[in-house]
Design goal:
The protein is built from eight helices and seven strands, in the order αααβαββααβαβαββ. It is of the alpha+beta class. The strands form two sheets. A five-stranded mixed beta sheet has the order 2-3-6-4-5. Strand 4, helix 7 and strand 5 form a beta-alpha-beta unit. It is elongated, with a radius of gyration of 31 Å. The termini are far apart.
Length: about 250
């Protein structure tokens, strides 16, 4: 009895830590782990980190405000021009003369910008209603336009646009699909030409009815909105994406 009592008295004399220190120790451990992770991440190559972040569409940051990636149009890098200002002016005059000689002033609009030649073609020249297959006359027009403007081109952007009248077919349930299919048809046709640049320098985009040039309340306005726009750019696309064949794929055990 006395021995047991002595044991209890001795145990009471052993110093113990306050309960709050347990929580404090856990917090300190977590903070240390957090800073170790920060240091480890700082060693990651910026290029590889961007590739990982790119898997989250439209996001380039987690802890800061959302950073939306710039639109395709602005992702260009200036390089040494392959054509002089005089040559570009001659190309511009030639395409304007072609449009005039073929009575296409109401169907084809051409502008020379700081980035390249911007061509707008109404869909009545290019496609039948509700379809994305190039008509024979449009193939001839597109071939001639491409031939006149291809010199010195570094990249090509094709945009498809529609009016706001709904479409619902087996092939194209919405105007999104129709506009995208039309721009893809134009790119495919251009790639088949002898003066085509490499395929990785083409881009096809479909905007549906969401970027109108005029009001959809009138037939004339809808006709303006149904169009294909082509930018023959003198600048190359900015492309930091690692090619698929260079990615390290996990090996099966």
């Amino acid at each position: 009895m006395s021995d047991f009592s002595d044991f209890e008295d001795d145990d009471d004399d052993v110093p113990t830590a306050p309960f709050w220190m347990t929580t404090f120790s856990d917090m300190a451990t977590l903070l240390m782990t957090f800073f170790v992770m920060i240091v480890a991440m700082s060693e990651i190559e910026v290029k590889k980190f961007k590739e990982a972040i790119s898997s989250f569409p439209g996001r380039t940051a987690f802890l800061s405000h959302d950073a939306v990636l710039p639109p395709t149009r602005t992702q260009i890098v200036a390089g040494d021009p392959k054509t002089s200002a005089a040559e570009r002016e001659a190309q511009f005059e030639a395409i304007l003369q072609y449009v005039k000689d073929n009575n296409l002033e109401e169907k084809v609009k051409v502008n020379m910008t700081e980035r390249g030649f911007h061509v707008t073609i109404t869909d009545s020249v290019m496609f039948h209603s509700g379809q994305a297959t190039l008509t024979f006359p449009s193939s001839r027009v597109l071939r001639n336009i491409t031939g006149l403007l291809s010199k010195g081109v570094e990249s090509v952007l094709v945009e498809g646009h529609t009016d706001n009248r709904p479409i619902q077919t087996n092939a194209y349930p919405t105007n999104w699909e129709l506009s995208a299919a039309r721009s893809a048809s134009v790119v495919r046709f251009m790639l088949e030409q002898a003066d085509a640049i490499t395929p990785d320098r083409y881009a096809a985009v479909g905007y549906g009815e969401f970027r109108p040039l005029s009001s959809n309340a009138t037939p004339a306005g809808r006709n303006q909105n149904r169009r294909v726009e082509i930018l023959f750019s003198w600048e190359t696309w900015q492309n930091e994406t690692t090619p698929y064949q260079q990615l390290e794929m996990p090996r099966k055990p």
